[in-house]
Design goal:
Elements lengths: L2 E5 L7 H12 L4 E6 L12 H13 L5 H17 L6 H13 L4 H20 L2 E2 L16 H11 L6 E4 L2 E3 L5 E3 L5 H11 L4 E6 L20 E3 H9 L10 H6 L4 E5 L8 E4 L3 H6 L7 E14 L9 H11 L6 E4 L3 E7 H4 L3 H12 L4 E13 L9 H11 L6 E4 L5 E7 L3 H14 L3
Parallel strand pairs: 1-2, 1-7, 2-4, 3-4, 7-9, 8-10
Antiparallel strand pairs: 5-6, 9-10, 11-13, 11-14, 12-13, 14-16, 15-16
Helix pairs in contact: 2-3, 2-5, 6-7, 11-13
The protein binds aspartic acid.
Amino acid sequence: MIKVSKFGGSSVASSEQLKKVKNIIESDIDRKFIVTSACGKENKDDYKVTDLLYLTYAHIKYGVDYTNIFTKIENKYKSIVDELKIEIDIDKEFDIIKENMKKGCTEDYLVSRGEYLSAKCLSKYLSFKFIDAKDFIVFKYDGKIDLEGCKNNFLKLFTKGDSIVVPGFYGSLPNNDIKVMTRGGSDITGSILANIIDADIYENWTDVSGICVCDPKIVNNPKKIKFISYDELREISYMGANVLHDESIFPAREKNIPINIKNTNEPEDPGTMILNDCSEEDKKSYQPIITGITGKKDFFIITVKKNHISSEAGVLKNALEVFYEYDISIENLLASVDSFSIIVEKNKIEKYQYEIIAKLKSKIETEDIYVTKNIALIAAVGRSFYSHVGLAGSIFKTLGDDGINIRIISQGSDEINITIGVENNDFEKAINCIYDKFVRSEG
Ligand code: ASP
């Protein structure tokens, strides 16, 4: 069995955490492909190394003394090396970084050093081989990952039987310059590695025992999701659930590799398994109808009214062109005979709302356009919605019984998501209401 195991920032934040990581890796001989983040926060008052590196770069850029910040990073790695007696010349590693800083290194080089140092330390600590991400994770100039290139490079560096540690979050451009991914990008590195070595599973070790059905800041002690499909995960991530880096699903998915979210602090917990197809699991054990409930506040609904609008060709095209002109993506679009409504995020439209409405009025030739503000969208996501007659009706009834006014209803044609728009003020109450009725009381 080939496993790729990625450890996030909190899993490698201190020597105590690294001991847990070592135990986890050594408890399973299949864990030979390790990806690491930079040290995250040891406790809530601590700092993430990556944040400190970005800050260091900003100080350099504006000519402000950065010694205090950079010393924090040095101390962090030095104490890990001392406490775990890792045989690595950490002073020399820092000398090289400081030398490069003096020479005017790029921001990407500097912020990638967190992952680099964590991987260097972890590989020594485990006696695994270090393979630098810059030598095989390659980007094209447009910023996209060249998967084929990654695979070819990796095969030149890897010898069968090697156990390896790879730093996450960065790779290199065709000219060899280091390029970092977006924040949280080590998840992507793990997924790329899983893809190019055809792993059987991609384990993503973090500090929670899986993905919660809904945000624990909204619902008290929500259940964990046992199995979720890639499609469902895309839906809940898009609507606000923050679990894995958005982009990290694709490389694993391309090869149908399951992703298992696991907890470094509770390694025996099964965590959440993300699969292409959950139907086998659904046959084996009970799965709630609703897999996840997420949402976001602060949308605007722009309603355009005009008699017989639905029989006029090109009206929607004209309206959408206005939004396109301002580079505003549309969240949802609802239509009826004499009107249609376009739902967009407040922060995307707020600045241009009057210009946009004026343009819509002239393009669509109607004065009857109004804006409804303070709308929250809530998505209930579930892979078996299509086979549950009356589900949407019972969600609406539950909300109605609790006095929550539904402003919008929408169900995607793939029937894995029912989206409901409510007033911002009702957001938390509505999520709790759906959770209590369909998840807490089930299973
Ligand atoms: N260290 C990077 C960050 O904090 C990348 C990662 O941890 O995945 O965003």
